[in-house]
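Data availability (excerpt). The following record was deposited with the supplementary files.
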Amino acid sequence: MDAVPFTIAVPDEVLADLVERLRRTRWPDAVAGSGWDDGASLPYLKDLARTWAETFDWRAQERKLNELPQFRAEIDGLGIHFVHVRGRGPAPLPLLVSHGWPGSFAEMTRLVPLLADPGAHGGDPRDAFDVVVPSMPGYGFSDRPTERGVTNRRIADLWAQLMTGLGYDRFAAQGGDWGAGVSTYLALRHPERLIGIHLNYIPGSYAPDLSPGTPPLSAEEQEFLAVRDRWIETEYAYGHLQATRPQTAAFGLNDSPAGLAAWIVEKLRDWSDCEGDVESRFSRDEILSHLTLYWVTGTIGSSMRLYRESRVTPLRLEPGQRVEVPTAAARFAKEAPFPPRSWIERGYDLRRYTEFPRGGHFAAMEEPELLAEDVRKFFKELRAVRRSDLA
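Predicted structure:
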């Protein structure tokens, strides 16, 4: 695998086009006083778009992102963008971190230094990681797939090849959202290479073996399934659309930056621990940098397509099948629906289960210190793997 250094450099004309489109937005109407009840707030989106068009400095954000060492490599016919930060410690452990939707590698900018250089952040240098953060196919600066079949399972195989190309025979994995599904598939398909997996989300399509002879569902598990069903009924409209008609939605979202902002910012607000004030968790620059990354790469349609692919290949464990790789689960307070420990233990070799009093779906952005600490503590016990096995 030949990895080529990569620097983000968005053409001026792309940014000028973005500003022009924002200025020409044809806004919808809204019911007076509806706020966020019917979806994205019209007053908030208008104000955000004004900042995006008039004062937001993408070049400053671009420089910050370019402080991370980035590369691109072709793997199994797809160009993959990734961050690769060498750890600062006596024996850094290779750690593959996978993002989800509506996320990107940029989610990890505050998390990566905490993992790669713990000694500089009040931690123990012996807990350092070599951190690899790929952009999922169809996201960011990775290629947008033009054929079907790029599922979480396929992405797991791509990541295994990526780590081989980087010289890591054995490695650890971490992920939330789709990244949790990819990490799970890595453990299922390449168990001999995985030291352990750390998840801050349990894949939505995950279903453990419930065949005859397995323990009956506990009251806690039954309540979780009821809560999950209610959430799907009231909150999952976006997922049904992206899993069934992503192409239809892509026409509007890829053409209108205001539409893209409404689609993504609603999720940043609803899924984070922000009590309804999205900018109490994410700065306006962070939000607009996130949106600009999707806009300039034209990846909202290709990112949504992963929902359709995963609907075709859901994560269902066969009778007797379990994830035998050591697993940790971190439950952040506002991440919902999140299963109880017993539900996870049915399908995973769960060694650590941590509940945090704050944080939400975007843990690496919201609570990077808590997430990094939990990752370090889990893998500290697994570092007995001989250094000669790690490459």
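Summary of structural features: Confidence is low (pLDDT under 50) at residues 386-391.
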